[in-house]
Amino acid sequence: MEILALVIAILLFLLGIVFTILPPLPGAVVVWTGMLVYGLFTGFADLPAWFLVVQGVLALGIIGIDYLASALGSKYFGGSRGAFWGAIIGLFCGLLIANLPGMIVGIFLGAFAGELIKLKDPQQAARAGIGALVGFLGGIPLKITLVIIMIVWFVVQIV
Questions:
Q1: Nearest-CA neighbor of 15 among 1, 3, 5, 25?
Q2: Segment 58-64 long-range contacts (CB within 8 Å, at least 24 positions apart)
Q3: How many CB atoms are located within 10 Å of the residue 99 CB?
Q4: How many CB atoms lie within 10 A of CB 122?
Q5: Per-residue DSSP letters for the chain?
Q6: What's the pTM value of the predicted model, to 2 decimals?
Q7: Residue 24: what pLDDT?
Q8: Which of 30, 61, 100, 118 could form a disulfide with 82 if both were Cys (CB 3.0 to 4.6 A apart)?
Q9: In 10 A of CB 73, how many CB atoms?
Q10: How far is Cα of residue 144 from the mean position of the Cα atoms in its chain?
């Protein structure tokens, strides 16, 4: 039973890494689910509750990186608070409408619209939109690194 649990967990880990880059689901949550499935199959013998709670909080933090990186990228490129919130709203709406392409377009359009409404300057709005995209794409290596840390910590915990 433990081998089956490990195989399922590994498959979910691999999916989680892929989903960290190309989402239909948040990759870190898929990785955490793999840990939970392993725990359920093994009676949580090697996974104490505190471990799953800390990993769950880390997974939620990784989800937040998408939103925060986009918003901070926009701000770094001179975007106002309108661009900041526009990037966050655009990312969420774009994800719901058209997955990864929707996220990319949504981030840009959200920051662009938020900045345009706030400052009425199309050039600055375009810079804010590009900044939001740069921030989002720049957050991907951090998210992958944190997901790998989650997996390594899991392996250390069960060995």
A1: 25
A2: 58/28, 58/146, 58/150, 59/26, 59/28, 59/29, 59/31, 59/32, 59/150, 60/28, 61/146, 62/20, 62/26, 62/27, 62/28, 62/143, 62/146, 62/147, 63/26, 63/28, 63/29
A3: 13
A4: 11
A5: -HHHHHHHHHHHHHHHHHHHHS-SS-HHHHHHHHHHHHHHHHTTSS--HHHHHHHHHHHHHHHHHHHHHHHHHHHHTT--HHHHHHHHHHHHHHHHHHHHHHHHHHHHHHHHHHHHHHH--HHHHHHHHHHHHHHHHHHHHHHHHHHHHHHHHHHHHH-
A6: 0.79
A7: 64
A8: 118
A9: 27
A10: 9
Report the alpha-carbon distance of residue 35 to residue 82 in Å, rounded: 39
Amino acid at 21: I
> Where is mean pLDDT largest: 32-36, 68-72, 74-78?
32-36
Evaluate whether 146 touches 69 at the Cβ level (below 8 Å).
no
User: Which string of b and e fits 39-64 if b means at least 16 CB within 10 Å?
Assistant: bebbeeeebeeebbeebbebbeebee
CB count within 10 Å of CB 22 equals 10
